[in-house]
Specification:
Layout: H1 19-24, H2 42-51, H3 63-66, H4 70-84, E1 102-105, E2 122-127, E3 130-134, H5 138-152, H6 159-163
Antiparallel strand pairs: 1-2, 2-3
Helix pairs in contact: 2-4
């Protein structure tokens, strides 16, 4: 994919990234945000990797050739991302000796209709085994309201609009 790094997603050929082909060839897939190309909605990213359309899609993106299984997309966004961040010894899988970084969801994303994955909500978040978010608490309800209001508003035009260009990893410092 190095040759594609500087090309917009739309110019990478019909259907976007060849995820299943890469997986079959032995590539390690990792998940994460590609904002501002994608909305910051991890559950829609998982859904799109499966059905190659997603909540914002228009038309099929080679689902039969490049759509991934639910297991693959969950592994991509957990163990794959931990590997990409060089944190696989600490997190990414549930096993003895690793941090208990977990989320409790409002549905079983391994069994619900694929179209319902985009609307998945997080009921509880544990970091290192400690509860840091509980949707049923007063703070959790307030946070959910802020998220809903933010999702309803317009998307920022650049990274710098979100965090003021405070770091260079995303290239925001060059967008001023």
């Amino acid at each position: 994919m190095d040759g594609q790094r500087d090309r917009p997603l739309a110019d990478r050929g019909p259907g976007g990234p060849a995820a299943r082909s890469l997986e079959k060839a032995g590539a390690r897939l990792t998940g994460g945000s590609d904002w501002p190309v994608d909305a910051l909605q991890v559950w829609n990213q998982l859904r799109t990797a499966i059905d190659r359309q997603g909540a914002f899609g228009a038309g099929e993106l080679y689902r039969e050739l490049e759509g991934l299984s639910r297991d693959s997309v969950l592994r991509m966004h957990t163990a794959g991302t931990a590997w990409q961040l060089r944190q696989e010894a600490l997190t990414g899988t549930v096993e003895a000796g690793k941090a208990a970084d977990l989320v409790l969801l409002d549905r079983d994303v391994t069994r619900c209709p694929v179209a319902d994955i985009s609307g998945t909500g997080v009921r509880m978040t544990l970091v290192g085994g400690r509860v840091v978010h509980d949707a049923d608490s007063e703070a959790g309800r307030a946070a959910a309201g802020r998220v809903a209001r933010g999702a309803a508003g317009p998307r920022p035009a650049s990274y710098s609009a979100v965090h003021g260009g405070r770091h260079r990893a995303c290239g925001c410092a060059q967008q001023h």
